[in-house]
Amino acid sequence: MALDAEIFKSYLKDGVGVLRLYRWQAPAFTYGFSQEPKNQLDLSACAADGVGVAKRITGGGTLFHDDEITYSFVCSKTDVGEPEGVFVDYRNLCAFLMRFYASLGLAPAFALEAAGFKDRCAPHELCSAAHEKYDILINGRKIGGNAQKRNRQVIFQHGSIPCSINWDFARKYIHSLPKDISAYVTTLSDELKAVSEKDILEQKLIDAFAHTFKVNLDESACRQCT
Prior knowledge:
four-stranded antiparallel β-sheet; four-stranded mixed β-sheet; globular
């Protein structure tokens, strides 16, 4: 999360757009900048078991990270073709995720397009349990989570693409995890007969990003961070 914050700050200085893909070395939770983590998490249990807890620079609810691909990017509104008069064009910004899921043979849809959306649309302290307009659904269930931070014409977004989620493990640390959470949250392993290796999935995500926004990614400038 500190590196995500640094990517955002660096763009404000040099204007160089960045797409970052990363994974988690151990299970962890992140929480929105305005949240109080002790209200959602057993922090003592997390500390005792080596489960990370980190604050995001974005808003939104608490999110569990483990077996997933995580991404972040920073750019200008112009880079992604967002009109100046539009405050937040989530449909356009999440188009690369829709393309990515489609490349796996899935049929993603935005939550606002789902039947009964008005009845299910409600904020929640746990990101996975919330259904907002531009959350992405697969077969009616939410997959992953995405959040943004903006500064004038600068866009920063990060999010997760879960390969699988061990809810029994996560439940040990979350105070109010709904019992039926798996009924409205899904993962790649739930939707696919076989999930590709993460290297393959990451390359598909990179390709989807480049194709959607019509950008040339300079991978020679990439570096691995630990």
